Amino acid sequence: MLRHYNRDSDQGQLSCVEGTSSIQIGSTVLTSRHSQHSMFRPGVLAYMKLFLTHAALAPAINQMGGRNAACPAPCFSMRCFVPETIPPTERTRVVREAHRGVYDRDAIYKILDEGYVCHAGFTVDGQPYVIPTLFARIGDAIYFHGSAASRMLRNASDGISACITVTLMDGFVLARSVFNHSMNYRSVVALGKAILVDAPEEKLEALHAFTEKIIPGRWNDARQPNEKELKATSILRLPLTEVSAKIRSGPAEDDAPDYALPVWAGVIPLSLTPGAPIRDEKCDPSIPTPAYAAHYQR
Asked: What is the DSSP letter of 112?
């Protein structure tokens, strides 16, 4: 049961009191109902102080204007849950514009699930490569096509160090000065060991995820991969254990004197919009266009 906590001293001692109410630490709110006064043990208190400090200071999704969070930090209440965060490492911690860094697993997974193409970066014999490729998330791992990388992984049984990036463009931000022009975006960077997938069952699961991510319902309509096709397909897996996101949203932020300039400023929203389906020339005209194609929506 969630309980209401009061701060009793400058040292942050917390106690439970009777009644239903709430307190706020930053943007973290604790709310509940109970009937008996009780004091926390030191270990529990230390954990609560650490978590609440993190929750109050670590913004989820930030916007440029005023450096304000676009959504509140994690909170305790009867109507919300505590999102799981992925602890940033020295490699994934956002340094430039750190207030835009996002480490909430759900927010990161939402970006990955919305994206279609990732860029996979890796180095072989001192030569860096970056390849755009289709990908899908299954649980806590990314699966991606790796035809170019697979040839280099044949002799690397333990995988190869890789960097996966996914970027969604949400808008062009036009400021009053060229210097302050920007872009609204959501991006993810994942680091780790990319492993070549050999098991046919796992390959099939990845291909199913690719297909259903793009066109839900298509997997059961089309012919599924045969054994020969599975052997010819290269799939790599990257566990999502070292990953972070960076998000920019909101209006332009100009220097104070520039707000008086007679220059239009604002945001041009961007989105990926599907067009009408185009029937293949060799497709039997009597076959109706499936609903998932005729009414495709992201």
From this structure: H
